[in-house]
Amino acid sequence: MTSAHGALYTHKDCREVFGYSIPGETEMTAQRLDGRKLAKTIENDLAPKVAALTREIGRTPRLVVVLVGDVAASASYVKSKAAAAKRVGITADVFSIQESTTTAELVSTVEAIGRDEHGPADGILVQLPLPDHVDARAVLDAVPPDRDVDGFHPVNAGLLSQGRPHFIPCTAAGVQKMLLDAGVKTRGKHAVIVGRSDIVGKPLALLLASRGPGGDATVSVCHSHTSNLKEVTQQADILIAAVGIPQLITADMVKPGAVVIDVGINRISDGDTSRLVGDVDYDPVADVAEAVSPVPGGVGPLTVAMLLENTFSAAKERKKRSVMAE
Ligand code: NDP
Questions:
Q1: Which CATH number fits domain 11-32+169-302: 3.90.226.10, 3.40.50.2300, 2.40.10.120, 3.40.50.720?
Q2: Residue 8's pLDDT is what?
Q3: Whose CA is nearest to atom 15 of ligand 1?
Q4: Is the CB of 204 under 6 A from ligand 1?
């Protein structure tokens, strides 16, 4: 709709500012994909299972988190992971290590944790990013694959690529869970993922292209060298942004009726304060899309919920292995 001055009004402007809808046009108010609510449900389902396992093994399942340096965002993520673990009955212990540590020292610490030298470690997580001078790959490779609850070890990445996943990277698993929970059909749909990182874009592409529920999609992966990004995103039935550029995905890049998942977490300053935004320009995109996940409150809480599920599975598998060894 165009104003007397030629300004283009969106459906949302008319609804919110002027209090009426555009006559004769279908109003699109996207469903808000509430990751917090779904994460709560997952936690509620998990808590009794953790309690039963605790009784079986005579201790609480335990997650060891390795936190290097004092990056505020990392510390805050670790804090919320530990709080969520506590809510379901998992012990989370944080190993805080000085920024000045070396790759060799970190590798040896992670290996020692993996040998249970610092108490039973059912799940081990190295909080990223690591300082630039540390070889992150070497550190992640030191996590034993059967405790690798982040799913970053090459063994787990390889298993996922072969369609026999063990530990799936938490954010990718969270996105798939969100789609399944919302009843979004992926089979035969075109899913476009913007971002090809080892921790989000790539594992998500594998998941959505895998056989079975939550999969069977035709997947396109875009990155910083994609020359015609808008042309590709406009073809997406399911569009996932995992880039790290505030509000990169604008309404004109979204096909009407698409499902849009925003993985991005970006802190932007707002005068004297700052706030979190995603990679998706939420309000205008919500006028076009069928469903959109918000930031915060979308994929973030599900990433944590998937970490809890992985840690529970790791503890359960460890129990099974110990029974078989007896
Ligand atoms: P990376 O920086 O590892 O990857 C970003 C990807 O975006 C790269 O593949 C890069 O391409 C691509 N890219 C960069 N610029 C463009 C562009 N202009 N057009 C298209 N693609 C582009 O980031 P992560 O995957 O680790 O994280 C992505 C975002 O998700 C971040 O905001 C991060 O904070 C957030 N995140 C959120 C989580 C959650 O729980 N919600 C968990 C993990 C991350 P190239 O490969 O060519 O460099």
A1: 3.40.50.720
A2: 45
A3: 224
A4: no
